Amino acid sequence: MIRSGIAVSRRDFLRSGLAGSALLALNGQVPAFLRQAAADAANRSDHILVVLQLSGGNDGLNTVVPYRDPLYYAHRPELGIPAGDVLKINDEVGFHAAMRGAAELLEAGKLAIVQGVGYPQPNRSHFESMDIWHTCFRKTQPRRDGWLGRYLERVPQPSELPALHIGDEQQPLALASQEVRVPSVASFEEFRLQAEPAVRRKLEALVARNAEQNDGLLDFVRSSTQAALRASQQLADIAKSRNTAGGYPRTPLGERLATIAQLIGADLPTRIYYLALDGFDTHAQQPAAHAALLEQWSMAVKAFFDELEQQGNAARVLLFSFSEFGRRVQENASQGTDHGAAAPVFLAGPGVRPGVHGALPSLEDLDDGDLKFHTDFRRVYAALLEDWLGLADSAPVLAGKYDPVPVLKKAT
Amino acid sequence: MSHDWNSIDPQWAWSPYEPDARCPWNRARAAHLFRRAGFGADSQQLDQAVHQSPQQVVDQLIEPPADITAFDQSSGDLVAFALATGDVHRLAAWWMHRMLRSPFPLQEKMTLFWHGHFATSAEKVADAELMYRQNQLFRNHALGDFRRLVHEVSRDPAMLIYLDSATNRKAHPNENYARELMELFTLGEGNYSEQDVQQLARCFTGWEIRRKQFRFNPYQNDEGEKTLFGQRGKFTGDEAVELVLSRPQVPGFIVRKLFRFFVADEPAPPDQLLQPLAEQFREEDLQLRGLLRRMLGSRLFFSDRVVGSKVRSPVDFAVTALRSLRATTNVQMLSEMCGKLGQMLFYPPNVKGWDGGRAWINSATLLGRANLVRQVLSDPATRFDGGGLLDVARRHGKERPEALVDWLAELLLAVPLSETTRMELVDVGRAAGNETAFREVLYLMMTLPEYQVM
User: Fold this and answer.
1) Which of A366, A390, B286, B335 is the most exposed, fewest CB within 10 Å of its CB?
2) Which of A191, A202, A209 shows the shortest C-beta gap to B367?
3) Mutate to test the interface with A, among B161, B363, B365 (most CBs of A within 10 A)
């Protein structure tokens, strides 16, 4: 497609039914660009994974509130969310009152919560625990790539943007790979050619010339430049025609999720998007800060799926949210909570089996004051890799065999 | 690449380049040498170079010039300012300034090579002074003695923090540095065993950092017998480094990496092609200067297949054009922008350093490159030899659009423009014949695929 000069939407192409082995069998008689598209289609699922990291350690107990458990209110005299305020999920737990968007997603069958996720011998350092989540390895083991990076290495990737990190923080280690380079872009603006239309046209004309066919570096750069100009033009068009009243919060998170929705709508071949929402390290004065974060998160994710529904892309997209750890069961003396261990994770999208999966860890049987995990986070990753992204075996990526948490509808 | 290196005779490849009718010594080949061995040449340097022999020019590039001392002095004042802020990003801007202005560009290029080789990130070290000291270590040994460099890196505080020497204790040896020393710094994967890693880690126990200095802590040092590469002994850390450096794979491993950095990104050359260089490196006891002199002065280096066979790194992309046009700009902005393009100085992505080659290129980075040029050209701090681009062009008698395009192409491009592309650019330059039009020509040229390779 990149070299053809003919605009073929990859997705249209997939839908046309030509994709896959029938066309591959015609190898040699089909134009190169069609062959490539068919190979792409045969090798990749159409699914997209958006990872939204909650940085700082989200207080799981005040996110999915055990409003029937007197122990919860005993440990949280100041911070406990009153039973009357929670948005009830079931007879046991309910969302923090600020999470209206999440409640609506759940109602629509598009949100799943996995309780009690963590890992053995929890580490309470932000940096170390996040690294464990990102790499699946502990400090004592060599770690130079992340779980998503290893996934990208194992499946054939489109040459263009197999994954994208959107944000201005350091690229998450989860995306690190020895072979695949994942770009980080802070904003939509960065993906736009900052040039007058006349200059852009001139550039397009110059780059389109001299398209001699060889496998050399120059040809590679030329086809990449053509693709980049085309993608940037597509995005510019979409940005122009975009209805800006999308219900997103007016925050970097809202803008970034809106950007991702645009990129998905623009039919980029990107399969993995990664972004982060920081600020969950609520050691003091937690209530207002935490409520604002949860409201922002819920609102943004809801708006994101509303937009995807309008585009007709929602069924292809799954959003996964996790934090490096939960927080202490017992609140501290500063109206805050300290670093803890197990916590719930969230999966959003029409592909989930909605509702709560797994029991709330006991508030009585604690590990040094923290909730005990019962579901290893790699079991959630296994579900994402196998049941969503269609990887046959997640064991090499996760450095071990993990039974996928049955939180997703089985792939069609 | 459609062709590999197999058809090339290694003896021919590394014999001294002697210009002939097929491969003449001209401004284009001189510019190639300056781009690879540094960050490009300005017009005057090319004028001088073609009146010398290629070997003379290589010799000049490889030896410290007389004015480096004065430059180092003024650069030292600048770095003191950067260090006072404690901000590693300021340090990155300082280094960017050195690359733009140093009279000894090969030293900076090799410093960049070692930074990518012994990759250490300030993300973890989080100390501008230690990053600076490591950078100076690379600079001091840039073209010197690889053996000494490895010994000193093994005691370098930034490195030892980055690779967890703090936790390398007798009771719990941390294998991180031991493993990377062999895998990434000297031998390459497959040239040591897991047992070697464990045993080497024991030799380094007690190598600590205290108050930002290396310190040997005898209480944490494992003095027992170790078995390394089949040899038994109560090896100290220094002895162990020597054992590693005496392995037969070291010269070939380093030569291969230098080949990719200076000669061509791809395909990977066969050992046979690198053999003469590896032998020389071994015979010269891992001294770098002679090796580089031979590599950069060779027939293969100046051959058509090598010119244009590397993707420009973000730093090469940004610095070469500015240096070639004697331009100055806001170096802080420049280094941050290189960061967005994937090469933030002092922040390599991991211990393996930057992958380089095709990995620099994707939609986001290509658009980012174009936007970087746009931003640099519109920044009021950007000056060409103290003035406008038009002024410089006039001074060199290049104010006609044809002359401008050809002159810029000679300075900036390793591969020729097609005639149609050339004429299009001339049209752009003709449109107004003023500063804006000239800058538009430069913008387009730096955004073309042709400028992304070197």
Assistant:
1) A390
2) A191
3) B363
Put simply, the answer to whether A190 touches B179 (Cβ < 8 Å) is no
The reply to whether the predicted model has a pTM over 0.80 is no
Runs of H (alpha helix) within A155-251: 197-208, 217-241
Residues of chain A found within 8 Å of residue B164, distances taken between Cβ atoms: 139
Q: Torsions phi, psi of A57, nearest 5? A: 100, 90
Asked whether the beta carbons of B452 and B361 are under 8 A apart, the reply is yes
Cβ of A403: how many Cβ atoms within 10 Å? Answer: 12
pLDDT tens digits for range B43-102? 999 999 999 999 999 999 999 999 999 999 999 999 999 999 999 999 999 999 999 999
pLDDT tens digits, A159-218? 667 888 898 777 799 998 877 767 777 777 777 898 888 889 999 999 986 655 556 899
- How many Å apart are CA A38 and CA A18, to the nearest integer? 8
Q: Is residue A391 classed as helix, strand or coil in its secondary structure? A: coil
Query: Measured at the alpha carbon of residue B90, what is the angle toward residues B86 and B96, in degrees to the nearest 5?
Result: 145
Pick from A183, A202, A227: CB nearest B365: A183
A-B Cβ pairs (cutoff 8 Å, strict): 125
CB B10 within 8 A of CB B276: yes
**Contact call for A181 and B421, based on CB within 8 A:** no
The architecture CATH gives domain A45-187+231-398: 3-Layer(aba) Sandwich (3.40)
**Phi, psi (degrees; rounded to nearest 5) at B311:** -80, 135
For B141, the token pair is: 């040994």
Q: Where are the domains of chain A?
A: 1-43, 45-187+231-398
Which pLDDT value is given to residue A226? 86
B309: DSSP letter: -
CA distance B61 to chain A (A): 27
Q: Cα–Cα distance between B315 and B334 in angstroms, integer?
A: 9
Q: What was the ipTM of the complex prediction?
A: 0.93
User: Closest Cα to residue B54, out of B297, B319, B265, B277?
Assistant: B297
**Secondary structure (H, E, C), A328-383:** CCCCCCCCCCCECCCEEEEEECCCECCEEECCCCCCCCCECCECCCCEEHHHHHHH
Mark yes or no for CB contact B123/A144 under 8 Å.
no
Q: Which of B175, B364, B374 sits opposite A161 (nearest CB)?
A: B364
Q: What is the Rg, in whole angstroms, of the alpha carbon atoms belonging to chain A?
A: 23
How many other C-beta atoms are found inside a 10 Å radius of the C-beta of residue B51? 8
- CA-CA distance, B199 to B240, in Å (whole number)? 9
> A193 — contact with chain B (CB < 8 Å)?
yes
